[in-house]
Specification:
This protein is of the alpha/beta class and 89 residues long. It is built from 4 helices and 3 strands, in the order αβαβαβα. It has a 3-stranded parallel sheet.
């Protein structure tokens, strides 16, 4: 999928987008793994992360702080149960 995207980008260099490749995700208590996850997806070519935090009680937001401060992550808290579809919409 990513190789296909990158090939299209090279073939059409005049297309202008704010971000080349973005991802939306919902997390809950992923502080232990979130930095590794973001670094991996940065290597794959993602340039923007829209993260909805579903009431984490660990240090997820603190682990994301440097990414938020640099504009790589758009961080939002979403409260309640079964909010995945709300976040994706």
């Amino acid at each position: 999928l990513i190789a296909s995207f990158l090939n299209r980008k090279v073939k059409d260099p005049d297309r202008k987008y704010k971000y080349d490749l973005s991802i939306v995700l919902i997390v809950k208590n992923e502080g232990k793994y979130i930095q590794e996850w973001i670094e991996y997806y940065k290597i794959l070519g993602f340039s923007r992360f829209y993260i909805f935090d579903n009431d984490s009680t660990d240090d997820t937001k603190q682990k994301l702080k440097k990414y938020i401060d640099h504009g790589l992550v758009d961080y939002n808290v979403i409260h309640g149960k079964a909010r995945q579809m709300d976040a994706y919409n």
